Amino acid sequence: MRRGLVAISVAALLAATACQSGSTTATPSGSQGGARTIALFLPESKTTRYEAFDRPLFEAKVKALCADCKLLYSNADQDAAKQQQQVEAALTQGANVLVLDAVDAAAVAPLVNQAKQRKVPVIAYDRLISGIGYEYYVSFNNVRVGEMQGQALLDALKANGTEDKGEIVMIHGSPTDPSSADYKKGAHNVLDGKVKIGREFDTPDWSPDKAQQEMEQAITALGRDNIVGVLSANDGMASGAIAAMKRAGYAKIPPITGQDSELAAVQRILGGEQYMTIYLDIRSEAEKSAELAVALAKGDKPAAPTTVNNGTADVPSFLLDPIAVTADKIAGTIVKDGFYKASEICTPELKDACAKAGIQ
């Protein structure tokens, strides 16, 4: 994985790029008139990463590479119709490149076609858009993410001696996000035939609240003492599942996975409530997408190292590697790369846990 993260203050990033979520705003700089315009569309704000990292990192890289580029930004708040309006508005405003993290990646082909008709190139960001060809796809190896989650859970169950003494619950992401299917596939690649799956859910909108409800249903159906582990596709849903288990009176939370390395999740891992998370180098993803967007805006088209078939076309792709992070790996990844500072992670309650994990 391309590393090279430097220490970065989330608060400073947010302050430098403050904007109301869900709005569409232009951020012009440099020359007026014929300035190139790059539009970034993110799907929602419930997941911390989008507003805290993806957006400010993308915008900062564009500005560094293209001082006279204009930026349009929109967050759809998990509303596909709203995102359609945002994309169409950006095209009307003269966007030269679209970087699109689709709310419903299986339904935005008509929007991509609108862009193609205007000769506006499209980059699918984080989620693979299906049904039409376009310029680039930038994401992570999503099947590998699911495999890492599945293997981590299996390792934890074996360490506890519980892999054959109960059932697991699988809480997957939104059915409108094709990445969810990849995560699910990867997890099943590892877990099928090795553990008993008691309940399995696809969670609309990646909602922590819905994940909590799903976990409550699983506890009622399977029995509290019969659940030995939880495969959660991301940290937000893990928080919901953990809330359900606490409410059900679990003395000790069974191993549960996550993804995105949210600050609260990193703290839960140190505190023993969550077993692991997947660390995604969002800086590399955002900056590579910005580099490609600027290149396309200038009329260039860099070669991609691979392609991904979206069911219609082989899309030139940049796929980054995920990293599985347990408590003993936080210092050498998340902290080392400046994703969070030790001072942000190590609350007074976690002082001893941080010292044990070598976080300082």
How would you describe this structure to a colleague?
The protein is an alpha/beta fold and 360 residues long. The protein folds into 2 domains: 10-134 and 281-321, 3-Layer(aba) Sandwich (Rossmann fold), CATH 3.40.50.2300; 142-279 and 324-355, Response regulator (Rossmann fold, 3-Layer(aba) Sandwich), CATH 3.40.50. The chain has 13 helices and 13 strands. The chain has helices at residues 10-16, 49-65, 80-92, 109-117, 142-160, 178-191, 208-222, 235-247, 263-271, 282-297, 331-335, 342-345, 351-356, and strands at 25-27, 37-42, 70-75, 97-100, 122-125, 136-140, 167-172, 196-202, 227-232, 277-279, 306-309, 314-320, 323-325. The strands form 3 sheets. It has an 8-stranded mixed β-sheet with strand order 1-3-2-4-5-6-12-11, with helices on both faces. It has a 3-stranded parallel β-sheet with strand order 8-7-9, with helices on both faces. Helix 6 (178-191) links the parallel strand 7 (167-172) and strand 8. Helix 1 packs across helix 2 (49-65), helix 2 (49-65) packs across helix 10 and helix 5 (142-160) packs parallel to helix 6. The longest helix is centred in the middle third of the chain and has 19 residues, at 142-160. It is globular and about 65 Å long. The model is unreliable at 1-33 (pLDDT under 50).
Features:
alpha/beta; disordered N terminus; Solute-binding protein; 2 domains; Rossmann fold; Bact_Solute-Bind_Prot2; three-stranded parallel β-sheet; 360 residues; Peripla_BP_I; eight-stranded mixed β-sheet
